[in-house]
Amino acid sequence: GRSTTGLHVQDSDSLAKALDEAVAEFGSVDAVVLTAGVLHVGPLAEATDELVNESIAVNYTAPVNVARASFRHLKASGGHLLFFTSSSYTRGRENYALYSSTKAAVVNLTQALSEEWSASGIHVNVINPERTNTPMRQQAFGTEPPDTLLPAALVAQAALEMIASEATGLVIDVRREQRSATHRPGGVAGITDEAVFGEAEESQL
Questions:
Q1: pTM higher than 0.70 for the full model?
Q2: Measured between alpha carbons, how far apart are the two ends of the chain, in Å?
Q3: 17-62: per-residue pLDDT in tens?
Q4: Cα–Cα dist 85/163, whole Å
Q5: What are the structural domains of the chain?
Q6: pLDDT interval class at 84 (50, 70, 90)
Q7: CB neighbours (10 Å) of residue 103?
Q8: Among residues 37, 146, 61, which one has the least CA distance to residue 109?
Q9: What is the pLDDT of residue 200?
Q10: How would DSSP label each residue in the chain?
């Protein structure tokens, strides 16, 4: 995947070093947002060991390692850990076995950590955007009509609103709809007119 820092999120030592450097430079780590992911499309029976290992390492092992590495920093700051999933987590689909299952694992991880870390004052949530205009999607699916895709900027805005909130344990949908949101207790306020944040529901990749 793309990296502007050379950091490999699958590597625990690299993560620990990066977080320590951030604390040394800025004084604390108030939020950790993990957006790394890979999407391989095709029958599972035809997947190579390399492809399987990469999918699991980037899409699931990385969130686990990020959580482990960031715990002490986020406990100190009462901060926020934010993951990203996909609407495919709600149901496995043909040719998306690895992607769907790893994204479902991230949701379960989020829910588990929100309970484990509640007493430590850490907020853990996961963003579930609909089909978004990103380089990974363009690589996997080619050119698509722009008006059928969610602008990446709206997803970024949703992430910023989440890490500024007191919510924890939520799966937050981001959709290209007019303002209308279903809030859970402790949910997010200040939603824009361009996107909906609400409870997760099934939609297409």
A1: yes
A2: 19
A3: 999 999 999 999 999 999 888 989 999 999 999 999 999 999 999 9
A4: 16
A5: 12-198 (3.40.50.720)
A6: very high
A7: 25
A8: 61
A9: 39
A10: ---SS---TT-HHHHHHHHHHHHHHHS---EEE--------S-GGG--HHHHHHHHIIIIIHHHHHHHHHHHHHHHHT-EEEEE--GGGGS--TT-HHHHHHHHHHHHHHHHHHHHTGGGT-EEEEEEE-SB--HHHHHHH----GGGSB-HHHHHHHHHHHHTS---S-EEEEESSSS---PPTT------TT-EEES------
Q: Residue with structure tokens 């989440």?
A: 162
Tokens of 115: 């309970």
Q: What is the edge-to-edge ordering of all strands in the sheet holding 123-129? A: 31-33, 80-84, 123-129, 171-175, 196-198
Residue range 85-117, pLDDT digits in tens:
988 899 888 999 999 999 999 999 999 999 999
Token code pair at residue 49:
């060991």
